[in-house]
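[audit] Reproducing an earlier prediction to check determinism. Same input, same settings, fresh worker. If the tokens differ from the archived copy the diff job will pick it up downstream; this log only records the rerun itself.
[audit] input (319 residues):
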Amino acid sequence: MSRLETIVEFLGSSAAIEDKLNIRSAYAPSLDAAQGAARLGDDCAAMPDPSGGFLLLAAEGLLRSFVADDPWFAGYSAVMVNISDVCAMGGRPLAVADVLWTPDHETARPVWEGMTAAARDYGVPVVGGHTTITREPGPVFLAASILGKANVLLTSFDARPGDDLMMVVDLNARYRGDKPFWNASVGTPPQRLRENIELLPRIAESGWCQAAKDISNGGIIGTLLMLLECSCVGATLDLGALPMPPDVEMEKWLISFPSFGYLLSVPVENRDRVIGLFDDHQLCCKVVGTIKAGEELELQLDGQSHVFWNRDHRAEKHA
């Protein structure tokens, strides 16, 4: 079995990637309630602001097992991942609200300490929400929502055939334990975090790019599949071109959440501008493939290629 075949087999059995492909069907019942205010698949709901631009609204729920195993980091992540969603839309985060149910104050304390640390480091306040001490034994439930503002949108719906598929990531990091989380956030100087979350809005406002998505759970592959589905396009992805840390297995990297990592669909004439902006901030940005017509994802490595996904295959698999 070739190296590419081994990787394809691993990705095909990934529950995290499967979960990404199921998001559209999971969200479908809410479309009537949305009343046209959100497009299924974007990182945030984008609503025109009467004063100009767009208000952005997003929310994230945290797995109960994650909250139980690492409550401080779960609290931190509740803020961090919401900020990433706003940036992926070309926006700037304004404020976070929490939803927290815990059986007692002691259990709630590390969660709040994590949320407070992230709010302080990123400069984005937690302004309220719904916090309940149940005084009954049971698991902790944690979610958070965020409000942001974009002058110009980046979306999941505007990748165009002929664009460069680009990836940017902060490689100045390390994994947090044995989980597929590449930690470029906790312990990073707050000034660097705040400068980095300004970069996607700058790209949007400069007109260098119209489509982007933050790399989240499901990693590079799961995130790219969502982008392709939303934009009704395909892509070639050169696995050998991916920016990645040394001494890390590619399989793990492909499903990792990099804390600061985005996929962008960039017109070829803007390639050097985008790379230069990230280079100026010590962030690694590379062309990793091409957006193409049709609706399939072709993986390439060492001169070999494999169609990993296409629209017909997905529809048949999930029918």
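[audit] rerun output stored. Observation attached for the diff report: The chain has two domains: 3-23+155-318, 43-150.
[audit] end
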